[in-house]
Design a protein that fits this description.
It is a single chain. The chain is an alpha/beta fold. The protein is built from 9 helices and 35 strands. It has 2 domains: about 220 residues, Spore Coat Polysaccharide Biosynthesis Protein SpsA, Chain A (Alpha-Beta Complex); about 170 residues, Hexapeptide repeat proteins (UDP N-Acetylglucosamine Acyltransferase, domain 1, 3 Solenoid). Strands 13, 15, 16, 18, 19, 21, 22, 24, 26, 29 and 32 form an 11-stranded parallel beta sheet that branches. The longest helix has 21 residues. The chain binds uridine-diphosphate-N-acetylglucosamine and calcium ion. Uridine-diphosphate-N-acetylglucosamine (UD1) binds next to strand 1, helix 3 and strand 10.
Length: about 450
């Protein structure tokens, strides 16, 4: 059956104490709402609608970046989750099938769990709610089940002591036929402790209309809803634990697993070794058999087979290491191709550049890529030898098998096979050091006598 996805992302999230809309806060380098959209996309929805409100422009722009086809519905005033779903009605005009509602602040719902909800719908329940047994139910809505059927959902604020003692909680995920869903929401009022139109009230409305509701349960770890910074930090931990487990399962060695941080989209090949204290920002792929040494920071980059990075290296967006390329300690690479077997081993900045295969970049080499207004490209040929402390003033190119002398400031292209030398001529003055030392010592002695 066709499925439509509705993700609610309009709320302000007062308890975050932030200028940023709640759903823009990130876990593993992706905003909360993007995690919810990713869970829902596993159902291959025919349409996806994101309901935005607080910080609408910012959330919409971020969403369109991720998925240009996403439908955006604006909830001008945040009058509750039921009211938020109602805003998706126009975007689902003409759609026939099931709608599944996900909360944008609930990032960890697994595709298998959504499949179980679809199965429960197929088995005949008109409304299917995803619930979980909470160790500490806190402020979650409570699911009131009678004789095996879901009777109603009561919000914490509106619950009696007896209802608060219930540990079966509402995750926020709800599935129903889309026309039925909108009809039920139309009948929801706002006579409650928050004065809001609660999506959760559709269960009670359904029952009064003679429709059935049921609960599918999942693990509590999946339903973590983020309402505060403490919950955001806890969710980050949950994500990292899962990502580390998955990496180990995939054949990656993590020497100190709890010190390695992954992004939502990190991909690492088998038999790669990651040393302690490595951070993967978004957009990193590492092929098999690479070595990522301690204290390195990678984002938006690619490391090929046999690549070695760090210790203490920084790979920024657009850094691409070909097979067996080496980037060593205190080296920063940005928007640059380091071709096969090339080495940038010590204390260098290589930005907006190509380093040809088997080139050797000496310690302290800098590509001077920025003139204060624009960025320029540096091209370094294959098998070149760039002497230590070379400054390459871009735009500039060094031909294959060329050399630069240590300390050279390269301002002109160097043809293949040529040697560039650009530094003051050195002289040796015999005995001058001794004379100078004597002079300096005498001056010091005079000063001490005088004082
Ligand atoms: C909600 C549920 C609660 C459940 C919990 C699970 C309701 C009434 N309560 O409570 O039963 O246990 O989630 O995490 O649904 N939003 C809008 N527009 C609004 C209000 C909210 O888009 O007018 C969005 C928020 O951005 C958020 C989501 O809906 O992503 C949930 O809203 P939130 O205020 O966090 O609800 P909870 O109090 O957590
Ligand atoms: Ca919430």
């Amino acid at each position: 059956m066709a499925t439509a996805l509705i993700v609610l992302a309009a709320g302000m999230g007062t308890r975050m104490n932030s200028d940023l809309p709640k759903v823009m806060h990130e876990i593993a380098g992706a905003p909360l709402f993007a995690h919810a959209l990713a869970s829902g996309s596993a159902l291959a929805p025919e349409r996806a609608v994101l309901v935005v409100g607080h910080g609408a422009d910012m959330v919409e722009a971020a969403a369109k970046d991720l998925d240009p086809d996403i439908n955006i519905a604006v909830q001008e005033d945040q009058l509750g989750t039921g009211h938020a779903v109602a805003q998706a009605r126009a975007a689902l005009d003409g759609f026939e099938g099931d709608a599944i509602v996900l909360y944008g602040d609930t990032p960890f719902i697994r595709p298998e769990t959504l499949d179980a909800m679809t199965a429960a719908r197929a088995a005949g329940s008109d409304v299917v709610v995803l619930g979980f047994e909470a160790a500490d139910p806190g402020r979650y809505g409570r699911l009131i089940v009678k004789d095996g059927a879901l009777n109603r959902i009561v919000e914490f604020k509106d619950a009696s002591d007896e209802e608060r003692a219930v540990t079966l909680c509402n995750s926020g995920v709800i599935a129903a036929n889309s026309d039925v869903l909108f009809d039920l929401i139309d009948a929801v009022g706002n006579n409650n402790a928050s004065g809001e139109y609660y999506l959760t009230d559709i269960v009670e409305v359904a029952r009064t209309k003679g429709l059935t509701a049921s609960v599918v349960t999942c693990d509590e770890a999946e339903t973590l809803g983020i309402n505060s910074r403490a919950e955001l930090a806890a969710a980050e931990q949950v994500f990292q634990t899962r990502a580390r487990d998955a990496a180990l399962e995939d054949g990656v060695t993590l020497i100190a697993r709890d010190t390695v941080y992954f992004a939502h989209d990190t991909v690492i090949g088998r038999d790669t070794v990651v040393e302690p204290n490595v951070v993967f920002g978004p957009g990193v792929t590492v092929e098999s058999g690479a070595l990522i040494r301690a204290f390195s920071h990678l984002e938006g980059c690619h490391v090929s087979r046999g690549g070695v990075v760090g210790p203490y290296a920084r790979l920024r967006p657009g850094a691409e290491l070909a097979n067996d390329a080496k980037v060593g300690n205190f080296v920063e690479i940005k928007n640059a191709q380091i071709e096969e077997g090339a080495k940038v081993n010590h204390l260098s900045y290589v930005g907006d550049a190509r380093v040809g295969e088997h080139a050797n970049i000496g310690a302290g080499t800098i590509t001077c890529n920025y003139d204060g207004v624009s960025k320029h490209h540096t091209d370094i040929g294959a098998r070149t030898f760039i002497g230590s402390n070379t400054c390459l003033v871009a735009p500039v190119s060094i031909g294959d098998e060329a050399m630069t002398a240590t300390g050279t400031v390269v301002t002109k292209d160097v043809p293949a096979g040529a040697m560039a030398v650009g530094r003051a001529k050195m002289e040796v003055k015999p005995g001058l050091a001794i004379k100078l030392f004597e002079k300096l010592k005498a001056a010091k002695a005079r000063r001490q006598k005088g004082s």
